[in-house]
Amino acid sequence: xxxxxxxxxxxxxxxxxxxxxxxxxxxxxxxxxxxxxxxxxxxxxxxxxxxxxxxxxxxxxxxxxxxxxxxxxxxxxxxxxxxxxxxxxxxxxxxxxxxxxxxxxxxxxxxxxxxxxxxxxxxxxxxxxxxxxxxxxxxxxxxxxxxxxxxxxxxxxxxxxxxxxxxxxxxxxxxxxxxxxxxxxxxxxxxxxxxxxxxxxxxxxxxxxxxxxxxxxxxxxxxxxxxxxxxxxxxxxxxxxxxxxxxxxxxxxxxxxxxxxxxxxxxxxxxxxxxxxxxxxxxxxxxxxxxxxxxxxxxxxxxxxxxxxxxxxxxxxxxxxxxxxxxxxxxxxxxxxxxxxxxxxxxxxxxxxxxxxxxxxxxxxxxxx
Length: 369
Description:
Layout: H1 15-21, H2 25-36, E1 45-53, E2 56-66, E3 76-83, H3 90-107, E4 113-118, E5 123-128, H4 130-148, H5 167-177, H6 188-196, H7 202-206, H8 227-236, E6 252-261, E7 266-276, E8 279-286, H9 292-305, E9 310-314, H10 318-330, H11 341-345, E10 364-367
Parallel strand pairs: 3-4, 6-9
Antiparallel strand pairs: 1-2, 2-3, 4-5, 6-7, 7-8, 9-10
């Protein structure tokens, strides 16, 4: 063009590019240099990459450096994680998001995509962890406020306690103070409601239980959960039931316990304890490989078929799901044809299908024949 001017307009920088362009080159390149190291500049992967800064610490299992074929496009970094499980749960996504969050803070670039190699077949998956990163930022903000606070946080026992180093100390303190959080069936909203009524301990809650006669129209309905009755059982160190125990008929009692690997959808152990005429016999049926699952199921059927009027008794619904799945996979045994689908799912609602006590023991009797 005349005068040396061009009519082409410079590209309008977006917020992301402008934010990083405003940083000095030395400031932007130093974290990348520290991440890759002087002896690994030409390599595509780094293994066991430690990251630490601002009170956070992590060790990435692997990081992949991806160069774009287009000019002017910056290098991207992809965190990689390895897991032996075949099925990943939401906790895994949170862990991957934490890796991406710390990596993005180190290199001062957004890292939203992660890769995970998992399972027996080494399956590779990529996931967008943008929403999980927002959750991590929210949790870190709460942790920061707790650390800056001069008063201790509220004592709450939950399902995450087994992963915490303070589990035993918190539980000991909760038992000493007789805290309501010892009752796992109570939600945070219910605890707040009880505190508003002046009930702060399990002992105080135990005095609020009042047995009531049920109306005839409610006899067929399942009895609701009574936290006060469980608190009473803890105070008196006894086991209380709601209603008479009538659902376990006479016969040979077979106590069933099953163990499995949920990520592989495999059951590897069937434990039986048979009690008959004041004598007990135990059986442990093991599956060393996936193909052995059918074998231990056949052994289980053989043991049950040789018993007169067996009654299965087990804890919770895990064994109920096991029986249903085994029947779907390997066929329904001849002796179980008379069972209704309702019996397999759960017993018909009755007062004693759930015994409110501490420790809580749920017994489910299933008619085999």
